[in-house]
Design a protein that fits this description.
109 residues
Length: 109
């Protein structure tokens, strides 16, 4: 099928990425607020243990087995704690983001 209608592979993916960037609007302001709110939610809305596990997993790139060995807990405990922390962050950013954005911007939206 040398003469296919659809292209595949990395060249197609690169073309799609360029196309997506060209038609999308600039959302850097929203991304900046989201990052700021994520940091705030990590500081205020998750437990200390969830924060520690999330930072080891995402920031330091450790897997769940390594976190468990480092902290002396079972891998399933690490997994459960990370999932609960992610759920808390998701809820906070989904339902509380409007309030956080208003507070951060001083109600200017």
């Amino acid at each position: 099928m040398a003469n296919t209608r659809y292209r595949r592979g990395s060249a197609y993916a690169a073309d799609m990425a360029v196309y997506a960037r060209s038609i999308s609007s600039d959302n850097s302001a929203q991304l900046g607020r989201l990052k700021k709110n994520l940091v705030r939610a990590l500081q205020e809305d998750v437990t200390d243990r969830q924060r520690e596990f999330l930072l080891l997993y995402y920031a330091q790139g450790l897997n769940m087995r390594q976190i468990g060995e480092r902290l002396g807990v079972d891998k399933s405990t690490v997994s459960r704690t990370i999932k609960r922390g992610e759920a808390r962050l998701r809820r906070c950013l989904r339902y509380g983001a409007g309030n956080l954005l208003e507070e951060a911007d001083g109600g200017r939206e």
